Structure formats: structure tokens, C-alpha cells
């Protein structure tokens, strides 16, 4: 297992939900963290009581590609290295084939696909230099099968799986490993609409954070390409 001491991890969308749980878990493990998002005040509140020499906060707006490079470069300047990236920021859409909306489709594509793609692009030279660079792409079980009519969300999460495997291929020889984390229901803003399960029956963010921490610590010869995480029986698996 890789020791967390000195390793630097970027986390997008770290102010709530899965991203917040991942940030809290990795900080406890001993990682240095760069937290990215649009709500900088929320990120500052999250990390207020933490050791500030292990924390960096940067603006990340999925639709503003200039913010991606600025965040990555500021992190590298602050810590002198980047060892991991958790692509967590994303959005949901209930758009269906019967009621398509081009603006809504463009927005979710930017948040769930184009933003993570460019963030990997910007961070990749640093991850390669690490020799044990890690990427965790927070996808969804909706990227593995289709069980509802939310076509825009399902499409983008399928695309995230493809992005994950592209990232695994392109820098494997330089020690970069990528994992797609695919949970089903998780209590969050995205599942607030759902009546399928009570929040307590869903997979909890803290448990997903433990999986992320495990993946980040695995050596190069124990790479996990996809983690499918169920809170109920999936008859398609």
C-alpha cells in the first residue's frame, strides 16, 4: 500500500455529498488536499479546523476550462507535486427522450464529461511525474445500465466510464491508474427526488469515501478499473 504522507490529491466538488466525505476521509488519512469548487466559502468552512499547510482551495467551474488549468497549476505551485485526482463534481438531469432540452443537455455534458476530461488533461503531466498517479472518476451505476428514462444523465455517466478507460490506457506505462466509482443510490441532492429507497437504505457517502481511500493507496500492480457499489440487488449484474 502507498503511504499517504506527502501525497497531494485534488478533489472537485468537495463541499458536499460524496466529495465532502472523500475530503474528510483523505484528510484523516494524512493526505494533503486541494479542494476545488465554485462555492469557495463552503470549502473554506469545511477545512477551517484543518492543518492549513496541508490544504489548498481553488476555483473549479466545469464550464470554465481556464479555471481547471489555474487550479491545477496553483496546486502544483503550492505543494510541488500532484499525486491524485478525484473527479467528483457533477449534476443530475431528469431530461427524457420525450422532452429534450438542448441547453440542459449542454449543461450536464459540460459538468459530467467535458469538465472531468479537461481536468484529467491538465493534471496528467503531474500524475505521470508522480510515478504512482491516481484518478478516481465518480460515475454511477447509471453508467453501466439504464433503469430509468433520464437519458441525459445516463448518457453522461456512460461517457464517464469511457473517459475512465481512456485515462487508464494513456498513461499506464507512467504509473497512472484510473478507477470508475459506480454507486447506485446515495443520499444527496441528486437523489432527493427519488422515492425508491429511504436515505438510510442507500449507500452512504462515508462508505464510498473509504473505497476511494483504498483505491488511492493500492500499488501499481493492484489496479481496480471499476468499482460497482450496490445498495440493492441488481438483476443486470
Query: How helix-rich are the residues, as a percent range?
Result: 40-55%
Order of helices and strands: EHEHEHEHEHEHE
Q: Work out the strand percent.
A: 15-25%
Largest sheet composition? 7 strands, parallel
Count of runs of 4 or more consecutive helical residues: 6
End-to-end C-alpha gap = 29 Å
Low-confidence stretches: none
Mean pLDDT: 96
Shape: globular
Structure classification: alpha/beta
Strand order of the largest sheet: 3-2-1-4-5-6-7
Rg (CA only): 17 Å
Beta strand count: 7
Give a nutshell description of this structure.
This protein is of the alpha/beta class.
Any overview of this molecule?
With 237 residues, the protein is α/β, with parallel strands linked by helices. 41% of the residues lie in helices and 15% in strands. The protein is built from six helices and seven strands, in the order βαβαβαβαβαβαβ. The chain has a seven-stranded parallel sheet with strand order 3-2-1-4-5-6-7, with helices on both faces. Helix 6 (205-217) links the parallel strand 6 (177-183) and strand 7. Helix 1 (17-29) packs across helix 6 (205-217) and helix 4 runs parallel beside helix 5 (151-170). The longest helix is centred in the middle third of the chain and has 29 residues, at 102-130. The mean pLDDT is 96.
Amino acid at each position: 500500500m502507498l503511504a499517504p504522507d506527502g501525497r497531494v490529491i485534488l478533489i472537485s466538488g468537495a463541499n458536499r455529498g460524496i466529495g465532502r466525505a472523500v475530503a474528510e476521509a483523505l484528510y484523516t488519512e494524512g493526505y494533503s488536499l486541494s479542494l476545488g469548487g465554485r462555492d469557495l466559502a463552503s470549502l473554506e468552512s469545511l477545512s477551517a479546523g484543518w492543518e492549513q499547510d496541508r490544504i489548498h482551495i481553488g476555483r473549479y467551474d466545469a464550464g470554465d476550462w481556464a479555471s481547471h488549468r489555474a487550479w491545477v497549476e496553483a496546486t502544483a505551485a503550492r505543494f510541488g507535486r500532484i499525486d491524485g485526482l478525484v473527479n467528483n463534481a457533477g449534476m443530475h438531469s431528469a431530461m427524457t427522450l420525450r422532452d429534450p432540452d438542448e441547453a440542459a443537455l449542454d449543461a450536464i455534458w459540460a459538468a459530467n464529461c467535458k469538465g472531468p476530461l479537461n481536468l484529467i488533461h491538465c493534471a496528467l503531466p503531474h500524475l505521470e511525474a508522480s510515478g504512482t498517479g491516481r484518478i478516481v472518476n465518480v460515475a454511477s451505476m447509471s453508467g453501466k445500465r439504464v433503469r430509468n428514462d433520464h437519458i441525459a444523465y445516463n448518457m453522461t455517466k456512460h461517457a464517464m466510464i469511457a473517459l475512465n478507460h481512456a485515462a487508464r490506457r494513456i498513461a499506464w506505462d507512467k504509473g497512472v491508474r484510473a478507477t470508475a466509482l459506480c454507486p447506485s443510490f446515495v443520499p444527496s441532492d441528486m437523489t432527493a427526488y427519488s422515492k425508491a429507497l429511504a436515505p438510510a437504505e442507500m449507500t452512504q457517502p462515508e462508505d464510498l469515501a473509504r473505497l476511494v481511500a483504498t483505491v488511492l493507496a493500492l500499488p501499481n500492480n493492484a489496479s481496480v478499473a471499476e468499482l460497482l457499489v450496490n445498495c440493492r440487488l441488481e438483476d443486470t449484474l
